[in-house]
Amino acid sequence: MPTYLNAKEFIAAVIDHYRALQVYSDRGHVITRLPGLGEHICSFQTALGPKGDFRFAFQSPHPYWRLRNKISRHIVGRARGQAYFASARSGAAMTVETWPDLVIPIAAATGISSGAAHTTGRLLFPEISGWSLAELKRPRLRSPQWLDGVLCYQVTGLQGRRRMSVFVGQHDLLIRKIAARNGRHAEVRQALDLETVHSEDFFEAPSMRASEGKT
Predict the structure, then answer these.
(1) Could you give the domains of the chain?
(2) Helix (H), strand (E) at residue 198
(3) Half-sphere exposure of 34 (CA within 13 A, CB side)
(4) Which pTM does this prediction carry?
(5) CB half-sphere exposure, 51, CA atoms < 13 A
(6) DSSP label at 121?
(7) What's the whole-number average pLDDT of the chain?
C-alpha cells in the first residue's frame, strides 16, 4: 500500500486514479437536510464505458416536503461521442437535448442532482470545470475509518466555510462518501464496480421526444 506525504498528495493520487479509469459504475444517493423543508434524498447511478461512453441517471423528489411524491428523472450521458441531457418531470414524457460534449449537460444537472453530477463529472473528465477536491483548503489526513465494511482514508478540509470529510477506500482509492461535518449534506457511493462492461446500447439516450440542442 503506498504512503502519502500529506493530504494534498493523497487527493492528487485519487484524482489521477479516477482520470485513468476505463470502466466504472456505482449507485448512491445524496442526503440534504434543508431548513424548514426536512430531508431531501436524490438517488443516482453511474456508468463509464471503455470507449468514453457515460451515463449518470438520477431521480430527484420535489424540494418541498408536501410534494415529495413528485419525482423527476434525469440522465446525463454520452454515447458514441454524442453527449445528451434527458429529463422528465413527474408523470411526464422524457425530453432529450443533445450537445457536442458533456460540459453543458453536467452543468444543467448539477443543481438538480444536489451536486452529485458535478462531483462525478469533475472526477472522471478533465474538461469539466468548477470546484475540485484538489481545492479543499487546509486538507488533513485523519485516522482511517470503517465505512460499510471498507477501511477508508479520511481527509478533512474546507470548501469555502463548510467543513468537509472525504472517505476513500484504502484498497482501491475510490470515494465512498463526501459529507459536510455539520450533518446537512452527505454524498454516498456504494456498489462500486471496476469490472462490469455495459453494452453500447446501455449508454444511448432515450428516444422519446428527442430534440436537438445547441451544437
Answers:
(1) 7-212 (2.50.20.10)
(2) none
(3) 13
(4) 0.90
(5) 13
(6) H
(7) 91
